[in-house]
Amino acid sequence: MLQFPIDCLNDIIEYLEDESNTLYSCLLVNRSWCKISVRIYWRYIRNLSTLIACLPNDSKEILYNNGISISTSKTPVFNYASFCKYLEVRKVIKDIEHFLRIQDISVQNLNDITIIVLQEIFKLLMCQTSSLRELRYTLTNLTSITFTSYPGARECLKNLSTLSCSSNIHPEFFYKFNFFSAKFKALESVSA
Q1: Strand-by-strand arrangement of the 134-137 sheet
Q2: What CA–CA distance (Å, rounded) separates 103 from 93?
Q3: Which residues of 54-63 are buried (b: 16+ CB within 10 A; e: fewer)?
Q4: Which residue among 17, 40, 60, 137 is least packed, with the fewest CB closer than 10 Å?
Q5: d(CA 130, CA 112)
Q6: Of 47, 24, 44, 43, whose CA–CA distance to 34 is shortest?
Q7: What integer is the mean pLDDT of 69-82?
Q8: How large is the average pLDDT for residues 146-165?
């Protein structure tokens, strides 16, 4: 089989960033293709269960103590959280709520447990993601999130170029982000 130089292969696969199915197929070709493709494929959070499997043991224990069972039989092959570049909070919340419904979490506890899982996921992302590029944060019925309070947030948010958020977010939120990242290319306000 013809071997492409790694940098050439990387350039080719970069063009597939928006082609999720094709990019997923690239993961399955061989180990070299997988190593390159996984970094691009996971720029967006693709699978919450996989991300939860990447949580440190203390976070898994917090989830377990709140009635969430986590499969610990398989250790993730990659540190998937480290590849994340685009974060859409509303989608993560929806994925968590779906995950919790499968876990048979009672409806009256759903919001509280969702917040706990959300905090552990964001703690992981702020600590493991080297440079988030885009953050989409629209308020939901859940409590507001202070991204800047997590360990590693300064490093994670320093190159944030796009911040998209609800128009009714408290001004303090913007002040904290400006302190962490003054490199915004786009600041979008979305009607809540």
Answers
A1: 86-88, 134-137, 162-166, 186-190
A2: 15
A3: bbeeebbebb
A4: 17
A5: 29
A6: 24
A7: 83
A8: 82
C-beta atoms surrounding 87 within 10 Å: 24
Sequence-distant (6+) residues with CB within 8 A of 184 are 160, 161, 162, 163
Place of tokens 């071997």: 3
* pLDDT value, residue 5: 79
At 101, the amino acid letter reads: R
- Whole-number average pLDDT of the chain: 82
Show the tokens assigned to 146.
């202070």
pLDDT number for residue 77:
86
For residue 44, how many other CB atoms are within 10 A of its CB?
Answer: 16
Q: What is the mean pLDDT of residues 152-159?
A: 84
Closest CA to 120 of 47, 58, 45: 58
Contacts of range 53-61, beta carbons closer than 8 Å, 24 or more positions apart: 54/79, 54/80, 54/81, 54/124, 54/128, 55/120, 55/121, 55/124, 56/124, 59/120, 59/123, 59/124
Please give the pLDDT value at position 143: 56
* Structure-token match 């990242």, residue found: 181
Task: Count CA within 13 A, CB hemisphere, residue 158.
Answer: 8
What's the number of CA atoms in the CB half-sphere (13 Å) around residue 36? Answer: 21
Token representation of residue 40: 């691009």
